[in-house]
Amino acid sequence: MTDSDSLADRWREARPPVAGLHLDSAACSRQSLSVIAAAAQHARYEAEVGGYVAAEAAAPALDAGRAGFAALAGMPDAEVVFTTGALNALDLLLGGWPAEHKTVACLPGEYGPNLAMLLAHGFDRQLLPTLDDGRVALDDAALALQTDPPDFVHLTAVASHTGVVQPVAMIARLCSELGLPLVVDAAQALGQVDCAAGADVTYSTSRKWIAGPRGVGVLAVRPDLMERLSPRLAPPDWAPQSTVAQQLEFGEANIAARVGFSVALGEHLALGPDAVRARLAELGSISRSLLADVPGWAVVEEAEEPSAITTLASLDDADPQAVRAWLLAERRILTTYVGVPRAPLELSAPRLRISPHADTTTADLESFAEALIAATAAVA
């Protein structure tokens, strides 16, 4: 048995049996039995002793979750705030950003909802140059940032519409040299690729590659930058003294889901982030090899892209949304329809996306390739 087989078995055995073939981890992965039990146990404890008493008791578990995320983000000294998701994390950050004239540099492939959030907070957008595959063109980007420095650089480490992995560590080094804060959206990257790159801010979600509950996110900010933020909900004079991080986290919260996320982070660290990343990259390579010759579709990523995400562009006007629906209804195969709004500045047509997790087998991917041929013919 190889190491990848062992990891796949451990991942599979830790979860309820899957009803079909789950190839949708970049949207929402499958929680483990331990994560489900931890969230349920906390909810039960709330009923037994009261929600606020239970929340106090959960503090060590939540602190462990914060520390786990900070470690994966390569930000051990960061202050970490739980949120309701990645977009909420960005909203909290932008709402307190310390600038009058707000400008942000990002890539043309930036996630559509992120663009909307930046616009809602009054940020002017500067697009960085990219290569043909959407990866940042480092030398050209360096010149652009030096010539016209923004307030900060926002980099989505792995986009929603493609499995291309951005060179986050190189961008972090460049931003450090130029004195520009780097904000990294790690929603699609955390647990799939190495996010320990030295960013000033990293935010993510629970439900994707870490396989935690939905409705939870996290925001890590370096202490010096955190102190410069001005949260929209500043505490009134009569309220107890609170830190900026506590102000950002203020409000009603699903503590049970946060506990579940913390457990999922612990499980990921116990499996070994390097081993998980290697397994996911292996599955991406297998997927792209198997799908390269499927008639009517083109694989978007290079074969050896270190990502488990494979996106498929139709060559014959097959409707990816109809194909996804057929796969789910007829074969119980869960995939992702990638609409143009996910990347409105870069994507010109919708795509189909698969994102297997560690328990997926080569046989599963072969079954998908066969089903894709059948689905394409059925919806033609």
What attributes does this structure have?
380 residues, 14 helices, 7-stranded mixed β-sheet
What is the element layout, followed by pairings?
Layout: H1 3-13, E1 21-22, H2 33-49, H3 51-57, H4 59-72, E2 79-83, H5 86-95, E3 103-106, H6 112-120, E4 124-127, H7 138-147, E5 152-156, H8 168-178, E6 182-185, E7 201-205, E8 217-221, H9 223-226, H10 244-248, H11 255-271, H12 273-291, E9 297-299, E10 310-314, H13 320-331, E11 333-334, E12 336-338, E13 351-354, H14 362-379
Parallel strand pairs: 1-11, 3-4, 3-5, 5-6, 6-7
Antiparallel strand pairs: 2-8, 7-8, 9-10, 10-13, 12-13
Helix pairs in contact: 1-12, 2-3, 2-11, 4-11, 5-6, 7-8, 12-14, 13-14
* Whole-angstrom Rg: 21 Å
**Oligomeric state of the chains in view:** single chain
Helical percentage: 40-55%
One letter per element, helices H and strands E, the order comes to HEHHHEHEHEHEHEEEHHHHEEHEEEH
What class, by secondary structure content? alpha/beta
* Beta strands, count: 13
What portion of the residues fall into strands of 2 or more residues? 5-15%
Euclidean distance between termini CA atoms? 42 Å
The strands making up the biggest β-sheet line up spatially as: 2-8-7-6-5-3-4
Envelope shape: globular
Architecture overview:
There is one protein chain. The chain is of the alpha/beta class and 380 residues long. 43% of the residues lie in helices and 13% in strands. The strands form three sheets. It has a seven-stranded mixed β-sheet with strand order 2-8-7-6-5-3-4, sandwiched between helices. A four-stranded antiparallel β-sheet has the order 9-10-13-12. A two-stranded parallel sheet has the order 1-11. Strand 5, helix 8 and strand 6 form a beta-alpha-beta unit. The longest helix has 19 residues. It is globular. The chain starts with a helix and ends with a helix. The model has no long low-confidence stretch (mean pLDDT 96).
